[in-house]
Design a protein that fits this description.
Radius of gyration: 19 Å
Structural class: mainly alpha
Largest sheet: 2 strands, antiparallel
Distance between the termini: 10 Å
Number of helices: 13
Shape: globular
């Protein structure tokens, strides 16, 4: 039943831009943020809150811009290399950050991401400063497309990646490594007594989460066509945490549901009033108060009740 609902949801998403072309950009951006929020949700499984994951989102986006400047112009190659760049930054930062817990982990992530943001904003000669860097339209399998055609290719590629990467992450969470993450949250000391290296478990999760955020950043850079330091600002990191909590961390779809819900709500509120923050804020309060397991938790509960 869950598979049928998921397939129907993906089909609806694929058809939406045909009915309302303006939704294509919104949905592409939502899926990109969904990947980054999924990275945050992976760490939340271990009870670790990262308020700095926008750094990996921005790192991969900048990697795309630098690689494009260096002459690499293939979409697939740019995606792979940028995600690897995000994972590499995650491995370096995670090697010492995963030694900390609770508020210290959250604040250190925030501090490191703000250092990264400051470097991006101040190194004008390298990153373009606050003006950012352009991301040209890449070739797809050697074919140079116009911007409208590329935007469609990017959207449907993002949709396919959402399914494939979502399945891979679900498999990871159901593996012994994934179960060890939950065990870290409940009783870390017992895990150490069993001979399981907690540091290695958390580092792997941190690199996976950074790679997911990097994939989101790369897709966002292609969709927007420019990379700016604000990608790494702390509010962007807070936004990702909000999406993960709003969607629910009980399953992989939660991150994407949260991102789609928030982006569509934002787009709808902007068309109604200038005070769209009020509408978005009130809706979030209602969702958080009456759906403690997130939007996905509501669907999962209804499905369990129906069994």
């Amino acid at each position: 039943m869950r598979t049928i609902i998921a397939a129907a949801a993906v089909l609806v998403l694929a058809l939406l831009p045909l009915a309302a072309p303006w939704l294509q950009f919104v949905l592409t951006l939502a899926i990109a943020k969904g990947f980054a929020a999924l990275g945050v949700a992976v760490l939340l499984r271990a009870g670790l809150i990262s308020i700095g994951h926008a750094m990996f989102f921005a790192a991969s986006a900048y990697a795309v811009a630098f690689l494009a400047r260096a002459g690499i112009n293939d979409l697939g190659l740019l995606l792979i290399l940028s995600v690897l760049s995000g994972a590499l930054v995650g491995a370096i930062a995670g090697s010492f950050l995963v030694r900390y817990r609770a508020i210290f982990f959250a604040m250190l992530n925030l501090a490191v991401s703000m250092v990264f943001y400051a470097l991006c904003a101040k190194l004008y000669g390298v990153t373009g400063g606050t003006d950012g860097m352009p991301v040209p339209v890449p070739a797809v399998f050697g074919i140079v497309l116009g911007e409208p055609a590329f935007a469609s290719v990017l959207f449907y590629l993002s949709l396919v990646l959402m399914v494939l990467v979502g399945l891979a992450v679900q498999r990871y969470l159901n593996s012994p490594l994934g179960h060890a993450l939950s065990a870290v949250h409940t009783n870390e000391i017992r895990l150490e007594y069993l001979g399981i290296p907690v540091w290695a478990v958390l580092l792997i999760a941190y690199v996976v989460s950074a790679a997911l955020a990097g994939l989101g950043g790369a897709i966002a850079s292609f969709a927007i066509g420019r990379v700016v330091p604000d990608f790494a600002f702390w509010t962007a990191s807070g936004h990702l945490v909000l999406i993960a909590v709003l969607g629910g961390i009980g399953g992989v779809p939660g991150a994407f549901i949260g991102a789609l819900f928030l982006e569509l709500l934002h787009s709808a509120a902007v068309t109604v009033t200038d005070s769209w923050n009020l509408i978005v804020g009130m809706t979030l309060i209602i969702v958080i108060m009456f759906m403690p397991q997130g939007v996905y938790g509501l669907f999962a509960r209804k499905e369990a009740t129906g069994l």
